[in-house]
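Supplementary material to the annual report.
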Amino acid sequence: MRLFGGAEATADSEKRMAIEIEFGARSDVGCVRENNEDNYRVAPEINLFVLSDGMGGLASGEIASRLTVDTVVKHCGEAAANPSLRLVGARIDGASEASNRLASAIRLANEAVYGAAKQNGNDGRMGATLAAVRFQGERMTVAHVGDSRIYRLRGGNLEQLTRDHSFVAEQVHRGRMTAEEASSSALQSVLIRAIGIEADVDVDVNEELLVEGDTVLVCSDGLTRELSDEQIAGVLEESEDPQQAADSLVQLAKQAGGGDNVTVIVVRWAPKPAGTLARIGKWFRDSG
Amino acid sequence: MSKLVLKFENSVLKEVPVGTSEVSIGRSPENGLVIDNPAVSHYHARVFQEEGRLMLEDFGSLNGTFVNGQRVKMVTLKPGDSVMVGKHTIVVTESREASGGLVTWHGEARPAAPKINETVMLDTKARRDFLEQVAAGGESSQIAPARVKVATLVVRSGRTDRKEYALSDKLTVVGKSAMATVKLKGWFAPKAAAQISRREGNEYYLGAADKVPSVNGTPISHPTKLEAGDVIAVAGIEMEFVYRD
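Predicted assembly:
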């Protein structure tokens, strides 16, 4: 699916560029689980893509993840119509307005799920992960809580842009465990941060530059538990379009076992230069 | 309390209660529910409790395990479900009686098969203790230290608009575009040569854009964390990553 976003004017000699975002998404219950507790939303009119993986017994996971994605989309949508809408939580220094707004939306989602958990039974606990990207010109906001991930394929390299908020990932980061040990650890699904578990949440928000041809993947751990980075990169590179990539990734994950719900969103960013000068100035990559 | 009732062609052979531990099913005598029939694998399947639900898991048996006519790998069982193992049927029933069935079994006769990883949260106290350790343990603290050191790029060679750049933004771009903080001079300078992202704990990650930068002489292959003293080279310029008071 293609669509054109707003035109971005730049101060230098480039002409106005139309931003073109292509995306595809797929969510599947997998081969083992009874129900799908993953949820996702695509909101291309506000350049926002978000997914959430719910946790908690007795279908409360599904409630948590649905509430998470709906709250995030709603808040960002309301702010797009009304930019002076109050931000939830402290402003992040040095971050763009879009980044601050997404962080605000995520904090609001946390409040919503935390509040709903109390009414839901199941011992008052339900939670979810979150992974979201938002595009604004050549800047992409990357936000996550938990172990759902965001990757970028650039120049043939698959780069993981998020660090899992999990016990083992933190140990690896501190040099106390190797990545191999982490991937076979019995504790690898233990999270240290999630939506809805406490009254406040520390949102991990970062910004990345966009380069033409970037392919961004937002996924739940159901994908990365089954497929290697090499397999994922291969699919992203070889697929005709993001929807085909999303479908292939899910299918491969199921063939590999499908032990968990699997959800993927694939977004390709390819600005189309409108003016002659921009057509002459082509992007290219080389070392040094 | 659930019970597994083993039947063969409408005759009840035995009943096994399902308590908090699992009931393994198979031809081998070590199983909790032994079915002595060639169509049944030695270790065929198991029934266990998970979060208040009764679960059935097939161990990759030769002839498979069927619930209400469908071949399954792992499913939730409800009272009344009919499980077929070989030519035998196991009916799941709810029983009001206290435990103490016809068959007793003594814990695990074989190592339990690994359970599918459920995502769980570390409980609150453990999580807080862990995070405090992480914060106290080293340089990357989420709480800003009393004397703030500012990450800075100091240009050693090459043409840029300034000699030093404080990295205060979440995203710093090196290039010629309007978005660039480190502005490259020169007609052929790329719009975006490289980028630096400020992530949690005030950690700075250098990433490729139109060009692949090097850190201390080595081209990076993925977003790379910068340490004090690292020298970055890209698009004809060289910069040192330092902390200033």
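The first helix of chain A runs from residue 60 to 81.
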